[in-house]
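Action item from last week, closing it out:
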Amino acid sequence: MNDVNLWEIALAGVGMVLIAVGASVGWKMISHTEWKWFWIGAGLWAAAVTVKLVIGLLMNAAVLGWLKEHLPYAGFIAGSGLFIGIESSACEIGLTIVAVAVWRQFSREAGRAIAIGVGAGAIEAFLLGAVAIVSVAVAASGLAVGEEIWKALAENQQKMQLAWLIGPLERALALLVHASSRALVLLGFGHSRPGMVFGGLAIFTVVDGIAGAAIVVSKTHRDLSPW
């Protein structure tokens, strides 16, 4: 079990948690927004991810399989990324649009709208960081399931340099996407600015589409570095 550095993985988990806490506390101090708006963002994220998970289980395998069968490899990767990006944006940003259509107070001022986006990104970063920390604890426990987790961690760690930095950096970028796209949509909808709404949808679609395409590529190129 000497082929994996658990401290490095634990550091990545702690970094993601600190990104979540630091972003939330930082925006709270800057904007003086009530904490409830951060929690509303976290709740919207949880609801959207639940919907996205159900839709993904029902559709993704069939759609990606059809694309793989009918398109050349480059088209398959591009089409898969586009599909995943649209699906993700429709769930996460779509639910945000529904929420602001029902509760117009979400769009009353920029600090509040950004807080909702920060809350969505922060809860995601916090949970992923917590999972990384728990995985390290289980891997070091000596249990049978810990050995399996240890092997998976070792395989992933071999692919990357500076592994401890990937998670926090990725979460910081993702949190900025959550905050910017949701704030654009909330404020654009509330102030009748369709260009802002489209911009928020476009940002989320493009970023999640690129991430989705990278995941599809990694399934056939297992030595691909996350960097």
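Closing note: Residues 35-70 form the longest helix (36 residues).
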